[in-house]
Amino acid sequence: DVQLVESGGESVQAGGSLRLSCVASGATQDIGCMGWFRQVPGLEREGIGSIDSDGITTYADSLKARFTISQDNAKNTLYLQMNSLKPEDTAMYYCAAGTRCTWEPRWYNYWGQGTQVTVS
């Protein structure tokens, strides 16, 4: 199994920046892709982007100008840098791990508990 723990979410003013982290532990050698998702209560989980084991990133078109995904393999840590934050970015942010990159949440085997980002 893989365990994921997100951190870094907080309340910020519009226009600000945040960097979220996701530390992976356990059977990390089985991970082929890690992704970031976000969810607002009552709505479906939205894909932000992903990074595969070769470091290739994919982003949602609506977010790629402001969000950047990176990873530190030595630390088993995934990052999400978010700039120029807007109130509509307010959501619970989740990292996920799976064998391949996809926009479908159901194909990710492991999920963190989420970290709340509030933009006002």
Write up this protein.
- With 120 residues, this protein is an all-beta fold.
- The protein contains no helices and eleven strands.
- The strands form two sheets. Strands 2, 4, 5, 6, 9, 10 and 11 form a seven-stranded mixed β-sheet that branches. The chain has a four-stranded antiparallel β-sheet with strand order 1-3-8-7, with no helix packed on it.
- β5 and β6 form a beta hairpin.
- It starts with a strand and ends with a strand.
Gist?
The protein has 120 residues and is mainly beta.
Major pleated sheet = 7 strands, mixed
Helix content: under 10%
**Number of strand elements:** 11
Uncertain residue ranges: none
Strand coverage percent: over 45%
| Alpha-carbon Rg, integer | 13 Å
User: Mean pLDDT, nearest integer?
Assistant: 96
End-to-end C-alpha gap: 37 Å
Tally of alpha and pi helices: 0
What sort of overall outline do the alpha carbons produce when their principal axes are compared? globular
Order of helices and strands: EEEEEEEEEEE
Structural category is mainly beta
Describe the secondary structure blueprint for this structure.
Layout: E1 2-7, E2 11-12, E3 18-26, E4 33-39, E5 46-52, E6 57-59, E7 67-72, E8 77-82, E9 91-98, E10 110-111, E11 115-119
Parallel strand pairs: 2-11
Antiparallel strand pairs: 1-3, 3-8, 4-5, 4-9, 5-6, 7-8, 9-10, 9-11
